[in-house]
């Protein structure tokens, strides 16, 4: 196994025990970027010299016995919505071509303080307003979509060009590409991870979280990210915590909700079969399965769009009027559509969310975790626009990918996507675990137990 293929936890242990130096690890990842990224397109910018300089500093600290923690010397990619001082934040858009950040975002500063090494900024669907990230190709099949909008971050982790990465998630943008590329994606509780210095898509739905190779890795990154920041109005007043799950796989006492509606409707049979096998594995580990009814499902899509579209348009109002031609057509149309939405529709969407949160709270009193597919289908070919289901229903690709992930953004509950197998074409399938607000521990416990008792995932094939 190449150093670039190590999990974060394995790399951290190798650095701690002096079997691997941060310089060797970072060089391996940079070599991998040079080898495969021209074909994959995960990165907007590769910060090679900065990374090598940081790796040397991390190595000197390690030699002096001053390890900062498990992220010390670990190579990371940051979605190009996340400010890093002196580095461009383009949002993968011509609108931001000349923008450079003056200061670090909160998450970039926290990761740097933990010793992580930035190797580059990863592509997003322009301003995170889409579910495919067209600049980036799927790590498992170059002819298929990477998923979005954190497609660059997911592909970087899946292909060995970052040991971990950060993404943002407004309607599924961490979990969708995680599922389509066979990695772990965590959308934390709304407000748990600060968003100061992160370009917004929709402020009442936006989250920042990690994409990693394992659930344990996600917990390690979350421990470095979480905590109150007064510069983010939504930031929760929580104290620092170690989110790592325990070593055991016994899930006795854990109640796993299995939806009887919505989450298995219009889902590819291979996806459903893989997720149900994974749920059976949770039961075999001691969890108790409980059927649950997902509330207010007819309002999910309208609520998601009713919140996101006007908030995105408000954020882009000045640029949209000054330089509309610099936006890609798909994003510009959505932003212009937002100007036509009446205020009453936005207020009704806010009311719907309030009611939905109340109903989800009641449902989550009955279970600790809900298990469901992350997305209803695996990665489609890059030129495919729609999915036709067995009953003849035709659904847009982006609508399909966001359908199962949006409820966690509307309600703010945490959600974890874990790989649970492949379809007959070899494309990854993801299972989504959802929990109560600030219930990350239950998700990480279940996800970690599952992956500890299933075969290890192979790295993405070389280009």
TrEMBL record:
Domain Amidase: 24-444
One Pfam family it belongs to: Amidase
Record-given protein name: Amidase
Top-level taxon of origin: Bacteria
A GO term, aspect molecular function: catalytic activity
Region (Disordered): 230-250
PANTHER family registered for this protein in UniProt: AMIDASE AMID-RELATED (PTHR11895:SF176), TRANSAMIDASE (PTHR11895)
């Amino acid at each position: 196994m190449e150093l670039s293929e190590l999990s974060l936890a394995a790399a951290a242990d190798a650095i701690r025990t002096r079997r691997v130096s941060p310089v060797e690890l970072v060089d391996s990842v940079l070599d991998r970027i040079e080898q495969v990224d021209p074909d994959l397109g995960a990165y907007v910018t590769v910060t090679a010299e900065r990374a090598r300089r940081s790796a040397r500093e991390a190595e000197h600290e390690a030699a002096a016995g001053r390890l900062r923690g498990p992220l010390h010397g670990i190579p990371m990619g940051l979605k190009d919505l996340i400010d890093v001082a002196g580095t461009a934040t383009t949002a993968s858009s011509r609108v931001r071509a000349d923008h450079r950040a003056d200061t670090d975002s909160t998450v970039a500063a926290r990761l740097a303080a933990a010793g992580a090494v930035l190797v580059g900024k990863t592509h997003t669907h322009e301003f995170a307003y889409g579910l495919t990230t067209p600049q980036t190709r799927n790590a498992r099949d170059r002819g298929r979509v990477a998923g979005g909008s954190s497609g660059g971050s997911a592909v970087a982790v899946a292909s060995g060009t970052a040991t971990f990465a950060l993404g943002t998630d407004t309607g599924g943008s961490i979990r969708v590409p995680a599922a389509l590329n066979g990695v772990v994606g965590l959308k934390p509780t709304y407000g748990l991870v600060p968003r100061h210095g992160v370009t917004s898509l929709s402020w009442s739905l936006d989250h920042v979280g990690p994409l990693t190779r394992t659930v344990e890795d996600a917990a390690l990154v979350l421990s470095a990210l979480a905590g109150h920041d007064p510069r983010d109005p939504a930031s929760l007043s929580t104290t620092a915590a170690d989110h790592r799950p325990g070593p055991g796989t016994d899930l006795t006492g854990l109640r796993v909700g299995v939806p009887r509606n919505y989450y298995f409707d219009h889902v590819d049979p291979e996806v459903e079969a893989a997720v149900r096998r994974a749920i059976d594995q949770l039961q075999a580990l001691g969890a108790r399965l409980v059927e649950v009814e997902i509330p207010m499902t007819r309002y999910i899509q309208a609520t998601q769009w009713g919140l996101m579209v006007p908030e995105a348009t408000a954020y882009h109002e000045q640029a949209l009027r000054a330089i509309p031609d610099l936006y890609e057509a798909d994003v510009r149309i959505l932003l212009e559509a937002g100007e036509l939405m009446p205020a009453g529709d936005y207020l009704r969407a806010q009311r719907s969310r309030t009611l939905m949160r109340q109903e989800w709270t009641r449902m989550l009193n009955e279970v600790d975790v809900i298990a469901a597919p992350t997305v209803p289908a695996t990665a489609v070919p890059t030129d495919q626009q729609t999915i036709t289901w067995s009953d003849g229903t035709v659904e847009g690709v982006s609508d399909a990918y966001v359908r199962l992930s949006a409820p966690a953004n509307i309600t703010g509950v945490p959600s974890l996507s874990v790989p649970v197998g492949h379809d007959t074409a070899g494309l990854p399938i993801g299972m989504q675990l959802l929990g109560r607000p600030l219930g990350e521990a239950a998700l990480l416990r279940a996800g970690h137990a599952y992956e500890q008792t299933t075969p290890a995932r192979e790295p993405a094939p070389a280009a």
